[in-house]
Amino acid sequence: QVQLVESGGGSVQAGGSLTLSCAVSGGTYSAYSSYCMGWFRRAPGKEREVVASIDADGTASYADSVKGRFTISKDNNKNTLYLQMNSLKPEDTAMYYCAARRYPICLSGWSGHYWGQGTQVTVSS
């Protein structure tokens, strides 16, 4: 039904920047606009964690580890979710996943109903 495809991953040196994009298709525009959206990541040997979330009304939240460095945004007209990552650290190395929840608010501890396949981010020292 709803498909999400991530792009923009790559390899950068510590202190560098990357912008991830998540293209959404399927479903309806109105439904997508009312969804909670966010980015998750999973590093090798670690559990999946939510990195950033954005409610339907645009309210954003971030994991403590990325506050001040990452910015989540969305463009409903382009059906695209973004994650701007600045001042990257080696600990940010992970597979990053885009997710959507069929609810307008990203409640604490939320998980997605729809998931992308992921895009790899590697940060070197």
Number of helices: 1
Segments where pLDDT lies below 50 for 5+ residues? none
Strand content: over 45%
Quaternary structure type: single chain
Question: Alpha-carbon distance between the termini?
Answer: 40 Å
CA-atom Rg in angstroms: 14 Å
* Dominant shape: globular
Largest sheet: 7 strands, mixed
Order of helices and strands: EEEHEEEEEEEE
Find the structural class using helix and strand composition: mainly beta
> Which whole number gives the mean pLDDT?
94
Fraction of helical residues: under 10%
Report the strand count: 11
Characterization of the model:
This protein has 125 residues and is mostly beta strands. It has one helix spanning 29-33, and strands at 3-7, 10-13, 18-25, 36-42, 49-54, 60-62, 70-75, 80-85, 94-101, 114-115, 119-124. The strands form 2 sheets. Strands 2, 4, 5, 6, 9, 10 and 11 form a 7-stranded mixed β-sheet that branches. The longest helix has 5 residues, at 29-33. The chain is globular and about 45 Å long. The termini are far apart.
Tag the structure with descriptive keywords.
125 residues; mainly beta; seven-stranded mixed sheet; four-stranded antiparallel sheet; 1 helix; 11 strands; 4% helix; globular
Summarize the helices and strands and which ones pair or pack.
Elements: E1 3-7, E2 10-13, E3 18-25, H1 29-33, E4 36-42, E5 49-54, E6 60-62, E7 70-75, E8 80-85, E9 94-101, E10 114-115, E11 119-124
Parallel strand pairs: 2-11
Antiparallel strand pairs: 1-3, 3-8, 4-5, 4-9, 5-6, 7-8, 9-10, 9-11
